[in-house]
Specification:
The structure holds 2 protein chains of 2 kinds.
Chain A lengths: L3 H35 L13 E10 L4 E10 L4 H17 L14 E8 L12 E7 L1 H6 L4 H18 L3 E8 L17 E2 L12
Parallel strand pairs in A: 4-5
Antiparallel strand pairs in A: 1-2, 3-4, 5-6
Chain B lengths: L1 H19 L16 H13 L15 H4 L1 H4 L4 E2 L14 E6 L16 H18 L3 E4 L9 H11 L3 E7 L6 E6 L10 E2 L8 H17 L4 E6 L11 E6 L2 E2 L5 E3 L4 H21 L4
Parallel strand pairs in B: 2-3, 2-4, 4-8, 5-7
Antiparallel strand pairs in B: 1-6, 5-8, 9-10
Classes of the chains: A alpha+beta, B alpha/beta.
Chain lengths: 208, 287
């Protein structure tokens, strides 16, 4: 025979357990909803598509050591650094094409970043709009670049020439590889010096 | 008499200092067999191995003035340029051959599987024998598969007081012979020039040398490309300097007819270059 007080205690404890289970279930559902709300990665704003603009690329040709001016219509961002990166990426994409006249593997991924800053050595640095570009190439691009005096020189000059053609205020260019200074691109072209974009004019073949 | 002796002694000390600091012209520096030869060599090796590029190449007697201004120059890497080309009449015409790469630095790889360092060394040996047969003195920066620092290559070329300095390269891209002069802006050759841009005072002569080579190679029906480049080593040379890159010979359809390491192709190229150097020597009025 179970005493009466034990039956009442059991009923109260059972009721308390059911109520606590219900509260726990409710709290779990609330926490789950909060977690889902925090991880929501769906775009809140539609991506903006930049309008296509006319861009000029200086494309190298190994056959005669020349650079050909090519006009292209490309969607370019407004930010000058991003703009420079997109331009150079398009240039390297041309070199990565199977029938390229200046074959270099890697494509647009070869340009890690392009930084623009006020140029050093300007006569009037406060009012001068001259800019200094630092082109950070990837180590993969440098490692896969064909070794040769002409091919490396053409790569460097076409990058400088393309920057000058589209961003005329860029007067000086320095190259880094994976964020570090490197003696040369693939054994030849000096990457320790500052290149003047004015020197990167299209070079015609030396002889007919 | 005592003060005269003292002045002489001071001049002797100054001269010794100048030799140690590499300021004396080549003709006045101790040579092998002279009592001061060992000290001169130590100065050379110091210069060649200097990582700070604080090296000087010789100039005229006015170089003694350099001692007085050393303090102001200590912060900058400078080289004393040779006065552009006014060689001593009796000096033998010297050519510096610099086969690129070597040792750990293999350079590019050719289609035959050979490395650029091997092809340039073979071409250097071939060209050296042709030039020696034509009575020219030849100085090479390497004779074996050894690593030679670009600074040392330039130092060797500058010590030789050469009439022409040729940096030899080989590549698989492009076609024919690529002639490169330094892309440094031309300047007046002064007493002191920065080591890294010492070639700037010689750009005019280097372009003239490129012209002579271009003519000789065109005469031999080579496909020649003239251009300018930034190349560590050549940019520090105080002589008429060229970088010569041998690319494959291609037919009208673009197909390769001779690889840069092909013996016949190299011999043909070396002959054309030797002819160009003969003309250049006559232009320089040197024996």
């Amino acid at each position: 025979m179970i005493p009466r007080y034990q039956r009442i205690l059991f009923s109260v404890l059972l009721l308390a357990a059911l109520i606590m289970g219900g509260v726990l279930w409710h709290l779990r559902e609330r926490a789950h909803q909060r977690l889902l709300a925090g991880e929501d990665s769906a775009p809140t704003k539609a991506p903006e598509v930049a309008a296509a603009e006319q861009a000029t690329l200086l494309v190298a040709n190994d056959a005669d050591g020349s650079m050909i001016v090519q006009a292209r219509s490309l969607p370019l961002p407004a930010d000058p650094s991003a703009r420079a990166r997109v331009l150079l990426g398009n240039l390297l994409d041309l070199y990565a094409a199977p029938d390229a006249a200046h074959p270099v593997a890697g494509g647009a991924a070869g340009i890690a970043q392009v930084f623009l800053m006020p140029a050093r050595g300007s006569k009037d640095p406060e009012n001068s709009r001259d800019q200094f570009a630092v082109v950070n190439l990837t180590g993969t691009f440098a490692a896969s670049h064909p070794s040769g005096l002409e091919t490396e020189t053409l790569t460097v000059l076409s990058i400088c020439g393309t920057l000058r053609a589209n961003l005329p205020h860029v007067t000086q260019v320095r190259f880094l590889v994976d964020g570090m200074e490197r003696p040369n691109l693939a054994g030849h072209a000096d990457l320790t010096r500052t290149y003047l974009t004015a020197d990167a004019v299209p070079v015609a073949s030396g002889n007919p | 008499m005592r003060w005269i002796r003292r002045v002489s002694l001071d001049r002797l000390i100054l001269r010794q200092l100048a030799t140690q600091l590499f300021l004396l012209p080549l003709g006045q520096r101790p040579v092998r067999g002279d009592p001061g030869w060992g000290k001169s060599q130590s100065a050379v090796s110091h210069c060649e191995h200097s990582k700070s590029h604080r090296c000087w190449a010789g100039s005229g007697p006015e170089a003694f003035l350099g001692i007085a201004v050393l303090a102001s120059l200590a912060a900058h890497p400078f080289a004393v340029a040779q006065t552009p080309p006014n060689p001593a009449p009796a000096q033998r015409f010297t050519v510096v051959l610099d086969p690129a790469h070597g040792g750990d630095d293999t350079g590019g790889r050719l289609a035959s599987g050979q490395t650029e360092k091997t092809a340039t060394l073979a071409f250097s040996v071939r060209l050296r024998s042709l030039l020696a047969a034509r009575g020219m003195a030849v100085v090479t920066t390497r004779e074996s598969d050894a690593t030679v620092d670009p600074t040392r290559r330039a130092a060797i070329a500058n010590h030789a007081k050469a009439g022409a300095c040729l940096s030899l390269h080989a590549t698989e891209s492009g076609s024919g012979i690529h002639l490169f002069t330094s892309s440094l802006a031309p300047t007046q050759a002064g007493l002191f020039v920065p080591w890294k841009t010492a070639q700037s005072g010689w750009i005019g002569r280097s372009l003239a040398l490129a012209g002579a080579f271009n003519s000789a190679l065109l005469h031999e029906s080579f496909n020649v490309t003239l251009s300018r480049t930034a190349l560590i080593g050549v940019d520090s040379m105080t002589c008429p300097a060229l970088a010569i890159e041998i690319a494959p010979e291609r037919g009208p359809d673009g197909r390769v007819t001779a690889e840069p390491d092909d013996a016949d192709y190299q011999a043909h190229t070396a002959n054309a270059l030797a002819t160009a150097l003969l003309e250049w020597r006559m232009e320089a009025h040197q024996p």
